[in-house]
Specification:
The protein is α+β, with helices and mostly antiparallel strands. Helices cover about 40% and strands about 20% of the residues. The chain has a domain of about 230 residues: Ribosomal Protein S5, domain 2 (2-Layer Sandwich). It has 14 helices and 13 strands. The chain has a 6-stranded mixed β-sheet, sandwiched between helices. A 4-stranded antiparallel β-sheet has the order 10-11-9-12.
């Protein structure tokens, strides 16, 4: 078993599906994480050849996953978010064909084999599993006048845990956009890739996500998070300097899909609350309000449930602004406190955490050396993100992992992550 899988297995943890995927790919995980993109490129081309006969003319691409440090469920409410791209993500090996056929293969879903389609079969409404994500991007490109003149063969491999909340779907979307740009010569910026990916997610896959996931992935910058105003798309890079501490992701291993979760329901509740507030004050989004203004006008919201949803959106936006200010002043303890407050609001007002994420977070709060911890992503499963002092990381993983398995009945996986760049051609 590769070293990183043994790391996840100590103290009774199970390696999880990630290591099985790598064994199928015949990859050494230590190579991927320690030796860099040269090894990955070679292995992706070898696997492409196994699937499609040879790798002549194939190119290899990468798009990261993302984690949001603070600012959850604010991106579709006109607020601020603070995500960063990760060094884990989705790899793709692709080449153009001479006909209009599309052939897809995912190492992560190898049991499905090669899935065939065509450029004349891109209309929304077809149920084609994971291939709906690349196909949605192709459809969106075509709708913007960038039509592929021939098909392609594509092999992808993701080392983002599926359903973890680290944006595997958005990673595939941005990856596909980067591939189309390179292979077909389309002139689009990285920010365009983000907008195209979001449009595809909304209109092809039926998930009313905001812009954060695709933007963080497309615009990622090593060792920086992105302070993004989702209402205007104005942004700035903020260096993440965690002297003596690291970012640790805890994956609950409870899978959830955005389309069949209550994600769209939460968005609808916020939209209804906004309409009610607009009867008493001039705002375009919930993100326009301060906490004081919300308290002044909140009686316009007639449903207690909608009141809680809107309160989270307003207060979380202000928390995010204050958190970035704290980071700029190197007030890491204050940043961590705001992370904790974010989780409480997501638990009590937005009600998107659940017993799994609450257990991971609340057990983290008990450990000396944990600066802050919260759920990240849409919720209903997925991951937490914690800032942990270096000397506490082993204890954090052991104690939180033990408590989680005892309460939930199965193991969580833990990832000490680094902040990386956006999409790349390897």
């Amino acid at each position: 078993m590769p070293a990183i899988c043994r790391f996840f297995s100590f103290a009774g943890y199970t390696p999880g599906p990630f290591c099985a995927i790598l064994e199928a790919l015949e990859l050494n995980v230590t190579d991927i994480f320690l030796e860099g993109e040269t090894i990955v490129k070679q292995q992706m081309l070898e696997y492409f050849a196994k699937v499609f006969g040879d790798s002549e003319g194939a190119e290899v691409f990468f798009a990261p996953g993302r984690v949001n440090l603070i600012g959850e469920h604010t991106d579709y409410n006109g607020g601020h978010v603070f995500p960063c791209a990760l060094t884990i993500g989705t790899y793709g090996a692709a080449r153009k064909r001479s006909d209009r056929k599309l052939r897809f293969y995912s190492v992560n879903f190898g049991q499905l084999g090669v899935i065939e389609s065509g450029l004349d079969e891109l209309e929304p409404g077809r149920t084609t599993g994971w291939t709906n994500y690349p196909k949605g991007v192709m459809w969106t490109f075509a709708g913007r006048g960038m039509k592929m003149d021939c098909g392609m063969d594509l092999v992808i491999f993701g080392n983002i845990p599926n359903g973890s909340g680290l944006s595997s779907s958005a990673s595939v979307e941005v990856l596909t956009g980067a591939i189309l740009r390179a292979l077909y010569g389309f002139e689009v910026s990285n920010q365009d890739l983000a907008l195209i990916g979001q449009y595809a997610e909304n209109h092809y896959n039926g998930v009313n996500c905001g812009i954060m996931d695709q933007f963080a992935i497309a615009m990622g910058k090593k060792d920086n998070a992105i302070f993004l105003d989702t209402n205007t798309l104005q942004f700035e890079y903020a260096p993440i300097v965690l002297e003596g501490a690291k970012i640790v992701i805890a994956c609950s291993n409870k899978k959830r899909g955005l389309a069949d979760s209550k994600y769209n329901e939460r968005r609808s509740e916020c939209e209804e609350a906004l309409v009610e507030l607009q009867t008493v004050c001039k705002i375009r989004t919930l993100g326009d309000l301060t906490e004081e203004q919300f308290e002044q006008y909140k009686d316009a919201i007639k449903s207690p449930v909608r009141l809680k949803r809107a309160r989270h959106a307003v207060y979380e936006n202000r928390r995010t602004i204050r958190a970035v200010e704290a980071l700029k002043k190197n007030e890491i303890a204050r940043f961590g406190k705001l992370m904790n407050d974010s989780h409480v609001s997501l638990r009590d007002d937005y009600e998107v955490t659940g017993v799994e994420l609450d257990t991971l977070t609340e057990e983290a709060w008990k450990i000396d050396g944990v600066i802050g911890s919260r759920m990240t992503g849409a919720g209903f499963g997925g991951c937490t993100v914690s800032i942990v002092k270096n000397e506490a990381i082993d204890r954090f993983i052991a104690q939180v992992g033990k408590a989680y398995k005892e309460k939930i009945g199965y193991a969580a996986d833990f990832y000490v992550v680094e902040i990386g760049d956006g999409p790349q051609t390897l």
